[in-house]
Design a protein that fits this description.
Elements (H helix, E strand, L loop, with lengths): L10 E4 L7 H7 L4 E6 L1 H6 L1 H11 L3 E5 L8 H14 L3 E6 L1 H16 L8 E2 L9 E5 L11 E5 L6 E5 L7 E4 L9 H20 L5 H23 L4 H21 L3 H13 L3 H6 L1
Parallel strand pairs: 1-9, 2-3, 2-4, 4-6, 5-8, 6-9
Antiparallel strand pairs: 7-8
Helix pairs in contact: 1-3, 4-5, 6-7, 6-8, 7-8
C-alpha cells in the first residue's frame, strides 16, 4: 500500500441553515475584528450582508472586500491586502465560490507574512503563523474550503500561480446547501463538472493513495447521485447537499493526491482566453 501522511485541519459544519451559525463559529475561534471576503455575486444575492449581520450580532467589527473577479489576480489580492491593513483583522471569513475562498487565503498569506505573492509560488513557503479563517462555499465545485492551495492569476502574463501552505487551511468550513440554490443553471453545471473532474482525476493520478481514493469515490458517489437532479430541479435541497458535500470530498481528495490531465489542459484556456475554469475543464 502507498504511504501517506493525513492531517485533517478543517472542521466541517454541514446542513441546511448552518450559515446562520457563522458569527457563533467565528467567535469560537477568538474573532473580534473580521475581514469578510465575498465576491460581487454574494453582494447581489444578499449573502455578504447576511454574513456581516451574523458577525456583527456577535459584536464583531467587520470590514468587507468585494472587488475581484472570477479569476482573481495579484492586483486584486493587493487591493484586499490594503483593506486588511486598514482594519487589522484577527480572523478572515470567505463567502462565495472558489474565487472568494482563494482570495481569502492569498490575502491572509500576505497580511501575515509580508512580501509578494510570487514569493510563495509553490508549497510551504510561509514562515509565520496565519490568521484563523472560516470558509462558506456557495458553489458545489472547487472544494477550495478543503484545500491548502489557492490559485491566483498573474496580471501581466496570465499565468495561474498555485500557492499552497498547510497554514492556509480553513479552520472551519460551513457547508449549507441552501446557499447554492441561488446559482444559475450554467454555474451549477460548470462548477458541478469541475467537482466531477476532481473525483475522477484524483482517483487515477499517480500520486493517489488508499486514503485519497476513499475521498475520490465518496465524491463521485455523491455527485453522481445529485448532478442531474440539481440541474432538473434547482430547489432540490437533498441534491444540492449531495453536490456540496461531494465537492468537499473532491477537495479533500485533491489535497491528498493532486490532479491530472483535465486540469492541466484546462488551465491554459483560462489563462490565455479567459474561459471560466469549470467550462475550461469540461472542455
Amino acid at each position: 500500500m502507498t504511504p501517506f501522511d493525513f492531517r485533517p485541519r478543517t472542521r466541517v459544519v454541514f446542513g441546511a441553515g448552518e450559515f446562520n451559525r457563522l458569527g457563533e463559529i467565528a467567535r469560537e475561534l477568538g474573532g473580534n475584528r473580521c475581514l469578510l471576503v465575498a465576491d460581487q455575486g454574494m453582494v447581489a444575492t444578499g449573502y455578504a450582508a447576511e454574513a456581516a449581520r451574523s458577525l456583527k450580532a456577535r459584536r464583531m467589527e467587520v470590514a468587507s472586500f468585494h472587488d475581484f473577479g472570477v479569476s482573481p489576480t495579484g492586483a486584486d489580492i493587493e487591493s484586499g491586502l490594503m483593506v486588511a491593513k486598514g482594519h487589522n483583522p484577527d480572523i478572515i471569513v470567505g463567502v462565495g465560490g472558489g474565487s472568494s475562498l482563494d482570495c481569502a487565503k492569498a490575502i491572509n498569506i500576505l497580511f501575515s507574512n509580508g512580501g509578494a505573492l510570487k514569493d510563495y509560488w509553490g508549497y510551504g513557503k510561509a514562515q509565520k503563523p496565519m490568521l484563523p479563517m472560516v470558509a462558506v462555499p456557495t458553489t458545489a465545485g472547487t472544494g477550495s474550503e478543503a484545500q491548502t492551495f489557492c490559485v491566483i492569476s498573474d496580471g501581466k502574463s496570465g499565468m495561474r500561480m498555485a500557492i499552497g501552505d498547510p497554514k492556509a487551511a480553513f479552520r472551519v468550513a460551513i457547508l449549507d446547501p441552501k446557499l447554492t440554490v441561488s446559482q444559475s443553471k450554467l454555474l451549477t453545471a460548470s462548477t458541478g463538472y469541475d467537482a466531477i473532474s476532481h473525483a475522477l482525476e484524483s482517483l487515477v493520478t499517480t500520486r493517489r493513495t488508499d486514503l485519497s481514493e476513499c475521498f475520490s469515490r465518496s465524491a463521485w458517489r455523491l455527485i453522481n447521485s445529485g448532478y442531474e437532479r440539481v440541474i432538473e430541479d434547482p430547489n432540490d435541497l437533498d441534491a444540492r447537499g449531495a453536490m456540496l458535500l461531494g465537492a468537499h470530498f473532491g477537495g479533500m481528495a485533491i489535497e491528498n493526491s493532486m490532479l491530472g490531465a483535465a486540469h492541466a489542459s484546462g488551465n491554459p484556456f483560462t489563462a490565455h482566453y479567459g474561459i471560466t475554469h469549470g467550462i475550461a475543464v469540461s472542455l
